[in-house]
Amino acid sequence: IPARLLMWCCSADLTPCGIVCEYDKSADLKKYTWVTVTGVIHLGKYQGKSEPQITVTSVKPAEKPKEEYVYPW
């Protein structure tokens, strides 16, 4: 699951926020690196429930963004 950290109020409440991806080369990816994921969104299952997921067509290295966190407001 590629994810960003979501901050509601302060750094004490950081929560990972991402989407499940199907990617046959996921074992080749390194943790804690920035990537750009391209793919097709489809309806999949996670823990018995339907949710949007991505079938990955490409993963490319990316630069760390100026703002690492996502803010919901």
Label the overall shape.
globular
> Tell me about the biggest sheet?
3 strands, mixed
Query: Mean of the pLDDT scores?
Result: 94
Strand order of the largest sheet: 2-1-6
Question: What low-confidence regions span 5 or more consecutive residues with pLDDT below 50?
Answer: none
Helix content: under 10%
Distance between the termini: 23 Å
Computed over alpha carbons, the radius of gyration is 14 Å
The H/E string reads: EEEEEE
**Total count of helical runs of at least 4 residues:** 0
**Strand fraction band?**
over 45%
Structural class: mainly beta
Number of strands: 6
What does this structure look like?
The protein has strands at residues 3-6, 15-18, 21-22, 35-46, 49-61, 69-70. The two termini are 23 Å apart. The chain has 73 residues and is mostly beta strands.
Name its key features.
three-stranded mixed beta sheet; mainly beta; single chain; globular; 73 residues; 0% helix
